[in-house]
Amino acid sequence: MKSYFSATAAALSAIIMATAMVGCGDGGGNSSDGKNMVGAGIEGGSGDVDEADFPYGSTIVELSNAEDEKIKIRIAFDKRFFVGDEENPDYSEIYKIHDYVKSINDKDGEMLKSLYYPGYLAEVTKNKGYDGEDDYVDYFFSGIEEALGEGFEIDYIDISDCILGSNEEASNYFNTCDSALAKVSGADILDKVTSRKVVEIGGYSTYKQDGNSYQLTDHVNIPYLCLYTIDGQVYII
Q1: Rounded CA gap, 175 and 83, in Å?
Q2: How do beta strands 74-78 and 153-164 pair?
Q3: Residue 177 CA to chain centroid, in angstroms?
Q4: pTM for the model
Q5: Alpha-carbon Rg of the chain, whole angstroms?
Q6: Nearest 10 degrees: CA dihedral of 60, 114, 8, 75?
Q7: pLDDT score of 22 more than 90
Q8: Residue 184, burial from CB neighbour count under 10 angstroms (0-12, 13-18, 19+)
Q9: Of the candidates 156, 216, 176, 154, which has an alpha carbon nearest to the alpha carbon of residue 10?
Q10: Half-sphere exposure in the Cβ direction for 149 (13 Å, CA)
C-alpha cells in the first residue's frame, strides 16, 4: 500500500504504530437532533461510567449536509474530542479535515494549499526534494488516483482516532513540526499555538469507483493529519 495523504504521513506512521491513542477532548460535545450518536449510556460494573472516561469511539456522531451546509461528505467522529462546549459546538477541526478530503475528491490544489499554515507547506515540501507546493500537489493527487483508480470519490470520512500534542511518545514528531513552523514564521509563533492533534482517517472511511464501494484503508495506508490551532484558526501542519 502507498501513503499519499499527507506530506508527513510516513513519519507519522512509525510514531502512531508505537503510540497508545489518547483522548483529545474534555467530555464536552454536541448531541443535537439530526446527529447520529452511538455509545451513549455505557455502564460499568459498579455503576455508570463518566462519559469523559469512555475510550475513543464511544460517543460517535455523524455530520452530513442535512445538518450542516458546509459538509458535503458525511463525516463521523467522537464528539468529545472535537466540538468542545456542548451549548456552542466548534466544528473548526472537523471542517478542516472535511475540506482536506474534499480537495482530494475535487483535485483542487488551491483548496489543499489553503488548509496549511501560510508558508509551511512550501518550506516542508522543498526540504523533501519537491520543486515547490505545486510540484508536491501534482504528485499528491496523481498518487492517490493511481492507488484508488480514476474517477474515485471518497464518500465517507471516519475520524477513527486522535493523539493529543501532550502525548510523550509523539513528542519528537510534534517538536519537528514546531521547529519547521518556527523556521517559517519565527519562534514567537509557537506561543500562539493552543492545540496540537494528530487525527487518523481510517476505520469505516469509504470511496466509490466505477459504481462500486471500497474501504479506503484497503488501498492506501491509514491517512494521518496533524492539526494545529494558531491564533484561533485551525491549520494542517
Answers
A1: 26
A2: parallel
A3: 16
A4: 0.80
A5: 18
A6: 20
A7: no
A8: middle
A9: 176
A10: 15
pLDDT (0 to 100) of residue 11: 44
Residue 177 is placed in which grid cell?
513540526
The grid coordinates of residue 64 equal 452530513
Which residue, 67, 78, 74, 79, is CA-closest to 98? 74
**Contact between residue 170 and residue 198 where contact means Cβ atoms under 8 Å apart:** yes
Under 8 Å between Cβ of 171 and 198 = no
Helix axes 133-148, 120-127, angle to 10 degrees: 80
| pLDDT, tens digit, 9 for 90 and up, residues 146-186 | 999 999 999 999 999 988 788 887 888 889 889 989 999 99
Cell 472535511 maps to which residue?
A: 98
> What is the C-alpha to C-alpha distance for residues 9 and 21, in angstroms, rounded to an integer?
16
- Concatenate the DSSP letters of all residues of the chain into one string: -B--S-TTHHHHHHHHHTS-----S-S-----TT---BSTT-EETTEEPPGGGSPTTTTEEEE-TTT-TT--SEEEEEHHHH---SSS---HHHHHHHHHHHHHHHT-HHHHHHTBPTTHHHHHHHHTT-SSHHHHHHHHHHHHHHHH-TT-EEEEEEEEEEEETT-GGGHHHHHHHHHHHHHHH-GGGGGGEEEEEEEEE-TT-EEEETTEEEEGGGTBPPPEEEEEEETTEEEE-
Average pLDDT over residues 199-218: 95
- Specify whether the CB–CB gap between 34 and 27 falls below 8 A: no
